[in-house]
Amino acid sequence: MLSFATTLVSQLKNANPVSFWVLKLYYNDESAFIGVSDQDRVDGSNVYHGLVSSWGTLSQSMNFFTFKTNSLNMSVKLINTEHSIQGGRFSDLLAAKNFANRKWELYQVSSGYSTWDATANLIGSGIISGNIKYNTTFVDFTLLDSVSKKHKKIPTNTVTSASFANAPKDNLNKPIPMAYGDFHDIGGIGTIPSSPVKFDYFFTKCKFPAIITNSINEDTGYVEAKADNSTLHTLDSDNIYLHNDGYYMACNISNATVTNPTLKYKGTSWFLYVPMNSEVANWVDGSFSTSTTISESTGTENRDIAIPEVPNLGVVSRVDVIAKYGDIDMNNADAYEVFDVDALNGGNILTTIQVQSGDGWDFGQSGHLQIETTPSAGYVDIHIEQIGAMVTLSPEKTYSTKVTTMVEKTVRNSNVIENESDPNTRDTITETVIVPRTVNQEIPADIKYIYYSGKGRKYGAWIDADSRNNGYDENGCIENPVYIIEDILRAELSLGSSNDIDYATFDTAGNATNGHIKNTLNGAVNEILFAFSQYKFINSKEFIERIGRQICSWVWMSANGKFKIRTLLRPSTTQSIAWAQDKIIDYRDITLKSISRSPIDAVRNSIVTNYDYDYGEENFKSQTGAGVDSGSNSSQSDDVEGFDQVLKLELDTDTLDTTTANNIRNAHLNCFKDRKVILDFDCLRPLYNDLEITDVIKFENWDSKIKIYGTAMGTDYYMITNISKTPFGCSIKAIKVSS
Q1: Contact 198/246 with Cβ under 8 angstroms?
Q2: Could you tell me the residue ranges of all domains in the chain?
Q3: 165: which residues sit within 8 A by CB, 6+ positions away?
């Protein structure tokens, strides 16, 4: 909410307030403006010419179900007759004064209130559209907010020949990726060994793309690639990969180095890890915290294993079976053998037998792990935690990745009308909707990437500036989706706190203790873990709306020109974070136009989420099970509250984490499984002109004879989805968000 000054509020509460608007139209370098109003007005040194023939409505809207917002906009018609201003027509000023793409500011004023252009009076600002029309009678201006001016194509950093003279030709003018979150070592599987065999080469959460910027450095012999244009939290030489035919091959650490955020590698020694097939599940379950013991007192003991076949990825120099051994109890046995290895050190990882060498690739075969003890003086217990095949090879140098599109853009499929009287508020939903992570606008490209694992961008000093207390610190890894959005605003759009970002709303939504996403996703904030690479061009507004939709949040530009965020809380009275109104509206101040419910097509009562994106293959590896609404009095029931129909949503997400993916699914089910009550009304006084979209209201003095589908109003909370303002009042459409 904009929150008018107390003095202005007191005046607007009068029974018959004299309220009006004054508008500043800036020009050229924006150091000066022409002021206009509905009649000649003077406030101190500011002159407002009485040129306004008609004010349009100052309008802003959002789509409650897709988490998209529309630009604040207004039209204004000025008198353009002879001698109307400075001895001539207003259009005569256009020769010396360029208003196009310059700033405008609109103020709500009441008679007797001094300093009309006080910040607290501001109800609209932005840029003047270049589409200025006039005739001998009128000049028509279209006023827009600054969204279109501040948003841009991201990533903003690209591979240019000026900066990267030896970049592959295919990579020129392609984006340098942006990496967020933790995609380094897999958690929850025990300690991943890094010596003497480096299992940490292979057991990582994900491999992100890094674009090659130097085919080879003539001084060092290294191929160089950029993981990001910003310094990343964690980037090491253990986790550099080539991708081919669905497999990732790790570069020998002796041939790799990093200068964050640049990866460098050379040589022909690469390692491919192939999980074994085995009758012993704990050996091949991907966890170092589980094991199976094999024992023998006299003779031999076998466990069957197999090395599966894989595609031909290059020239093989050897294939080794590698294993992580746990505790070993020899119990006075004189001798034992494992894979013909004559000595075994307790707890170590051993590179075992060579089973294949040369350039042949058909090494798929089965065999067994064997323990042999002699004599019968004791027994041997060996705990094995993990076993697999490590292929040493010189891979085919296929760096290119066929990228299906270089521009992401969201798509919509069918119409749902938010406001019956305003066709501009149409939005689109279908029975089965896929919110795309990558939508193809076909621009085929073979781009040369390598891949890596690590941790993405770090919090800048901004996270601690302005006396913020959000539980995060500079240089921490950004995993919280709310602050990923804020980082994009700052790092990619070059926006700052003072004029561009209402950082208090971001802390309300995302702070580590009780950020509203905790309520929405029904989990601790530090368990809401986003991790992804944005390696394709996308409009920053589309990107922010993609992230916002996943966490049920709207990001929009306020009338004061600052970006804000609002998170949709669960419609429940039992949550630790509950709705609180921004303003109470007196029923005696409004004219109720209609009570309705949101369309059935907007309901989603069966939801799955896709997650864990494979950047080499360009597809999702995992999907949550369907969250389905069921039971009595639910949207799927056939009673008065339900409609007995399954309406599905398939949502692509930017997380690698199963818990986060499930919580996103459940949040959307909880919020959208039922139809919502919608109120449409006019406010008869400008007292409520400081309200904006996403503001939450409740009512007092509601007419008890007017029930909400048979139920008294009570202390229900509604969120504003559409608002259109005039100097004398506003029209509002609001949707119920409480239970």
Answers
A1: no
A2: 6-150, 157-273+398-404, 274-392, 581-652+660-739
A3: none
Comparing CA positions, the residue from 212, 210, 237, 234 lying closest to residue 224 is: 212
Q: Are 141 and 129 in contact (CB under 8 A)?
A: yes
Mapping DSSP to helix (H, G, I), strand (E, B) and coil, where does residue 282 land? helix
Contact 373/344 with Cβ under 8 angstroms? no
SS percent in the chain: helix, strand, coil, step 5: 15, 40, 45
> What is the spatial distance between Cα 283 and Cα 291, in angstroms, rounded to a whole number?
6
Number of residues in the chain: 739
β-bridge pairing 103-110 and 718-726: unpaired
**Is the CB of residue 371 less than 8 Å from the CB of residue 301?**
yes
Containing 515, the helix (H) or strand (E) segment is: none
Question: Which candidate, 677, 463, 668, 674, places its Cα nearest to that of 551?
Answer: 668
Side chain identity, residue 60: Q
- At 624-654, the pLDDT tens digits run 999 999 876 788 888 888 888 888 999 999 9
pLDDT per residue as tens digits for the range 170-188:
999 999 999 999 999 999 9
Q: Residue 413 — φ and ψ, nearest 5°? A: -125, -25
DSSP 231: P
Question: How far apart (Å, rounded) are the C-alpha atoms in residues 340 and 229?
Answer: 50
Residues 377-400: tens digit of each pLDDT: 566 777 888 888 888 888 876 566
pLDDT by residue (tens digit) across 585-631? Answer: 999 999 999 999 999 888 999 999 999 999 999 999 999 999 999 87
Q: Which token pair is 538?
A: 């996308």
479 vs 485: CA distance, rounded Å: 11
What's the alpha-carbon Rg for the chain, to the nearest Å? 32
Q: What span, in angstroms and rounded, lies between the C-alpha atoms of 291 and 386?
A: 7
Residue pointed to by tokens 């001094």: 114
Burial group, residue 646, by CB count within 10 angstroms (0-12, 13-18, 19+)? middle
**Residue 219 reports pLDDT greater than 80:** yes
Q: What are phi and psi of 605, to 5 degrees?
A: -120, 10
- CB of 657 within 8 A of CB of 646? no
- pTM (predicted TM-score): 0.91
Q: Are 450 and 399 in contact (CB under 8 A)?
A: yes
Q: Name the region of 190 (left: φ>0; alpha: ψ -120 to 50; beta: rest).
A: left
Using CA atoms, how far residue 123 sits from 20, 232, 565, in Å, is 12, 40, 18
Report the top-level CATH class of 274-392: mainly beta
Query: Could you identify the residue written with the tokens 């959000």?
Result: 470
